[in-house]
Amino acid sequence: MKPINITLLSGILLVLILSACKTGPVNLFKTASPYELYQRKLTTAGLDKTAMGKAWIDAGQESVAKPLQIKIPYKEEGYFPAERVAATAFRFDVIRGQQLNIRLTKTPAADFMVYMDLWTYREGNTPKLIASADTLNASITVDVDDNAEYLLRLQPELLKSGSYTLEIVTGPSLAFPVKTTGRKRIESLFGVGRDANTRRHEGIDIFGPKHTPVVASADGVVTRVGENNLGGLVVFMRPNDKNYTLYYAHLDKQLAVQGQEVKTGDTLGLMGNTGNARTTPPHLHFGIYTGAGAIDPLPFVNPDVAAPKPVAVATSNINATVRSNTKTELRDRPDSKGLSLRTISPSTVMLVEAAADSWYKAKLPDGTSGYISGKAVNPVKTSIRSIKLQPEQLALYDEPLTDAPIKKTLDSGSTVNMLGQFDSFLLVKDGDAETGWVRSSTNR
Predict the structure, then answer these.
(1) What is the structure's pLDDT at 123?
(2) pTM for the model
(3) 68-69 and 128-133 beta bridge pairing
(4) Residue 14 pLDDT > 70
């Protein structure tokens, strides 16, 4: 958690800005993400050879290698300090048919760049970068075509501070297929048994008054208008640029014609109960078919969109040093059932990077990041107790490491205030209000 000297590096930042205006080895004809373009500028300026530039590149790679696990919907409020090289990454699952929406709001809005990169994982394949964004485009929207695991990385530009709010939500990727001003009545879901369980329901049923308009759920082309024993009067349409076909059944009247190009919301027919639905109330059987058969259409049109839980802990602790007030666990996700990354002893010091729900995302002095319950930590405002230094405790270290730089040598027998601890080190403040780490004494 060692900070960067902003004053010392201000001249380097100027070099970076000037280098971005010069002709360098950037291939203008090759598509590159905003993150990649920024990294090329660092390389062009020679900053990738400096400790700061290398730390920025390493931080981005390390965050992707060790992402934190979250569940969607998710909301986080955080802070990127200029004096620290920072990056964070999240891993999460999304269901086929959903639309993934990622939005980042920042303060300051203009002079503070944060790069967002989104990858998808598929079994047997390397991660694939599918979307990127920066300050000029602080949102990502993706239609999810397969059940997949995603990875999102956030990383700010060098030497800029700012707070942010990240929201990740999912919703339907298609418009609702029935025009209604009332409650959207979805019943009889995909996969339930039919005809004494001799077959499975290959869609969802949406109920409504007879002759309710059924509409195109996307821009596309009507591929077939016909009739069959199960579906009665039916319409098939193919959304543009998709590998599946939408199926509308049990219509009382078909209004679309084969080959017709339609826009989202155009009426294809009127709801009824034709086919094997003659004894049921009027409804639309809505299905989606791929080359491999029927798939569950509910995620594609489900109108129930869950909102992320609001941040319920004190945001004043973000970017602040806190200490644990009890024995607890640092977990891989903001959930009491999450995997424990480390057991935290009382008075352990950590830096709060962000807040989500009732959890803090915190980083330990050794660089381990995870989630800790907001109830388990307090700000480091007062000392725990006074300590009389032993001869082996006189070195005041910059970090809790024996090879860390020594800030100063304390006087033998002097007294310091203990603020917290980590492993075999104590965080202390001396009489000159200098804060640093000393070794734990075997006599304490």
Answers:
(1) 67
(2) 0.89
(3) unpaired
(4) no
